[in-house]
């Protein structure tokens, strides 16, 4: 007799009341020392940035900051106040000092809130809750660095929630309240497993029999989803889409983004502890497949997960994006340590 894995997932209500400031901090940061750990951290810009407003990032242009860039020969009409008279005294030629222009960095965060992200799988929080908590930390670092921040929640059907125009440390509470409200709505919608249930399925186990296509790129084709200005995009997802991941990376690159892909899985999805005959239910599509779980099948599954991670890492490397893999039982402080050695993610 087959044991059915029933996904207990409800759609979060769009009418949920906003979580207040104190509760937001408690939900997102049960250990407040996490915020302290992020205080000195900043978002890595990847390269000199283009912007429209003054900020703390060196741009591609020359301007009026205090950071020296280069000399150029004086030409009639130039501001004589910018002549370096020490150089003139040594060479007898007039040169102007040039300085880098400084502009703000636009940081964009996209959090996958599709149904597969509701899975707990041996951790205390679901994947989407973990992603929201991590996004709060990254957003806090961006705002502390005087960057301009926007965040969008998405699934394969479109954008589900948006907060944009955040700037400066004073906007941190607004960010936390937005993310904590979503976090709280997911608390009663998480999918757990028992000894008789399977985790959410991965395409390597289900195969493609009668399965509709889940396309990650669909919401990014909707006008207004892609960033309007160049900058840095952080993408938090379990990457459980049949197609569209590469197309999403290409679209973000075309929008002038340096991409950080944060690949989030639960411990049970990486190393499942299943046995017996089960019916696995796809949380995204509701389709199912009866499977006899054996040691050989689990070994193949683990190999498939490892291969998929390597494939994502390769796709990112080929496009100059950063790839970071985390499991939901990993402490945020340990994630910080990993980011500090992952190029173009966080810097001090």
Structural write-up:
Helix 1 crosses helix 5. The protein starts with a strand and ends with a strand. It contains 11 helices and 13 strands. It folds into 2 domains: 291 residues, no CATH class; 47 residues, no CATH class. With 348 residues, the protein is an alpha/beta fold. The N terminus is likely disordered. The strands form 4 sheets. Strands 7-6-5-8-9-12 form a 6-stranded mixed sheet, with helices on both faces. It has a 3-stranded mixed sheet with strand order 1-10-11. Helix content is 32%, strand content 27%.
Q: Strand pairing plus helix content: what structural class? A: alpha/beta
| Estimated helix fraction | 25-40%
Computed CA radius of gyration, to the nearest angstrom:
24 Å
From the spread of the alpha carbons, the general shape counts as elongated
Strand order of the largest sheet: 7-6-5-8-9-12
Ranges where pLDDT stays below 50 over 5 or more residues in a row are 1-15, 48-55, 57-65, 193-211
Number of domains: 2
Spell out the blueprint of helices and strands:
Layout lengths: L2 E2 L16 H8 L4 H6 L3 E2 L10 E20 L11 H7 L3 E9 L2 E7 L14 H18 L3 E8 L2 E10 L4 H16 L15 H4 L11 H4 L9 E7 L7 H10 L2 E9 L1 H4 L5 E6 L6 E6 L1 H24 L3 E6 L4 H9 L5 E2 L1
Helix pairs in contact: 1-5, 4-5
């Amino acid at each position: 007799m087959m044991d059915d894995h029933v996904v207990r997932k409800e759609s979060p209500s769009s009418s949920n009341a906003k979580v207040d400031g104190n509760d937001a901090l408690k939900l997102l940061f049960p250990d407040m020392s996490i915020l302290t750990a992020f205080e000195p951290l900043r978002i890595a810009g990847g390269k000199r940035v283009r912007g429209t407003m003054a900020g703390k990032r060196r741009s591609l242009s020359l301007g009026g900051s205090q950071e020296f860039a280069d000399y150029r020969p004086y030409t009639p009409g130039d501001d004589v106040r910018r002549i370096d008279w020490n150089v003139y005294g040594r060479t007898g030629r007039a040169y102007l000092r040039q300085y880098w222009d400084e502009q703000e960095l636009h940081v964009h965060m996209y959090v996958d809130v599709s149904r597969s992200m509701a899975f707990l799988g041996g951790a205390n929080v679901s994947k989407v809750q973990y992603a929201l908590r991590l996004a709060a930390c990254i957003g806090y670092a961006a705002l502390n660095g005087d960057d301009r921040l926007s965040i969008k929640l998405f699934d394969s059907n479109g954008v589900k929630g948006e907060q944009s125009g955040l700037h400066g440390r004073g906007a941190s509470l607004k960010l936390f309240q937005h993310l904590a409200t979503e976090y709280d709505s997911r608390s009663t919608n998480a999918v757990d497993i028992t000894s008789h249930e399977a985790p959410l399925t991965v395409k390597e186990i289900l195969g493609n029999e009668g399965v509709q296509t889940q396309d990650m790129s669909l919401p990014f084709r909707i006008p207004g989803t892609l960033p309007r200005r160049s900058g840095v995009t952080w993408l938090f997802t379990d990457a459980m889409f049949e197609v569209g991941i590469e197309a999403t990376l290409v679209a973000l690159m075309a929008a002038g983004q340096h991409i950080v892909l944060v690949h989030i899985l639960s411990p049970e999805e990486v190393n499942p502890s299943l046995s017996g005959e089960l019916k696995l239910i796809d949380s995204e599509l509701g389709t199912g497949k009866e499977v006899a779980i054996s040691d050989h099948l689990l070994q193949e599954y683990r190999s498939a997960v490892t291969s998929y991670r390597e494939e994502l890492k390769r796709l990112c490397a080929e496009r100059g994006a950063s790839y970071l893999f985390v499991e939901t039982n990993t402490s945020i402080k340990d994630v910080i340590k990993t980011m500090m050695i992952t190029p173009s993610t966080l810097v001090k």
